[in-house]
Amino acid sequence: MNNLTVSAEVGAIEGAVDGVATLPAEFEVVAAITASMERDTSLVGNPFKSVLGNLWNLNSKAANDFIGQIEKKFRRKNKFHSYFSGSPSNSTPVNLEKYIACNIDFSKLAEAQMSVIVYVANSNERGTLQGGNLVFIHYKTPGDEDDLGRLMIVMVDKKSAFEFDNTLQPKALQPIDTDALRQAAMFDLTLFSVVYPKKEGSTYLHFIEGRSKSDFFKTALGCDSTIPNKESVSNLFEAIKSFSQHNGLKPALQEKLTQGVYDFLDKNIGKQVSLTDIQHIVDKQLPDGHEAVGSFSDFANDKGFQINDFFEATRASLNNGVSIKIVDFESNYSVSVKSGSLGYEGSDKPVFVDENITYLMIPLSAADRERIRVIVGDKDNVDENPR
């Protein structure tokens, strides 16, 4: 099958940002296919059934447009970032491993995943679940032989801007309404092959929930419901730094943004907060009418900062998020300093650096001074040439 190179149109996205995006300006589509899931009204209980379409014609303009729009919408949406649950009944990791090893082709992968999705959809507690079309897309970075690519699975409404012909090939479509993305998941196959089955380090699974609030998609795909909050908090403050630099905010205003978010999380330790909440806090710190108002959430998503749509901060993760750890190259010392405490010599900051940022000056308590004096002695009594 011929691969299709699709432009992600980064520069054309409303509110697009400069710099290095999460994805390259172009990506190569390896394969794509659609499966329909609808209720079988001829059987008792009207259970769901699925029908798998043909592999997409990757030379089709409609396919090109569809993939470009769907990837862009997914990238800009708030997401959860996680790992597979590790449940023995979850077959998704096994299916992905088989696909990566070329033991099954793309159609067989989609067929295997649809079997699981239909099984979960037919569970008793999901009687109100509606059907839809599920789109499977495998895409990767052009020319990167080490990139296994990404697998995106998207569920869309039957009645939406997404239109398919009788072989489930995409037809010409209107601009996509974000809400038409009912649920979606994206698997980074390269990270998955390295990280799985561990649950540490970079997450390889990213998913969104549109209008559907059930755990249907997460359950069917085996997503872990335990969200790594520590990474969300750390990435949040990194996103604030990058956001400030991108918008040319002066250090004092960047510090105000950081402090505002810190204070908000400090008041909500152990409570669930959302990226939308953070957006409101950031906006409150910006001057009225500033061009960056309302753009933080989109910026963080577009730049690939893995911040869960909902997360909880702990005291430790919050303090680590606003601190910088400094270690010299010979590991003679290490020190952790809150970013808001740093400044140049002569400023009102308690910890300061010289104008060339060569040395760091830290105030010592009386107890710390005494502990150090025991080691180095009084300066007047230091023997430079001990014998």
Based on Cα principal axes, name the global outline. Answer: elongated
Low-confidence stretches: 7-25
Please give the number of β-strands. Answer: 15
Radius of gyration: 26 Å
Specify the number of helices. Answer: 11
| Terminus-to-terminus distance | 80 Å
Indicate the structural class.
alpha+beta
Average pLDDT: 82
Question: How can the largest sheet be summarized?
Answer: 8 strands, antiparallel
Strand content: 15-25%
Task: Please trace the helix and strand order, writing H or E for each element.
Answer: EEEHEHHEEEHEHHHEHHEHEEEEEH
| Helix percentage | 25-40%
Indicate how many domains the architecture comprises.
3
Structure description:
Strand 14 (about 350-355) and strand 15 (about 360) form a beta hairpin. It is elongated and about 95 Å long. The N and C termini lie far apart (about 80 Å). Residues about 5-25 have low confidence and may be disordered. Helices cover about 30% and strands about 20% of the residues. Strands 1, 2, 3, 4, 5, 6, 7 and 8 form an eight-stranded antiparallel beta sheet that branches. Strands 13-14-15 form a three-stranded mixed beta sheet, with no helix packed on it. Strands 9-10 form a two-stranded antiparallel sheet. The protein folds into three domains: about 5-220, no CATH class; about 230-320, no CATH class; about 325-380, no CATH class. The chain is of the alpha+beta class.
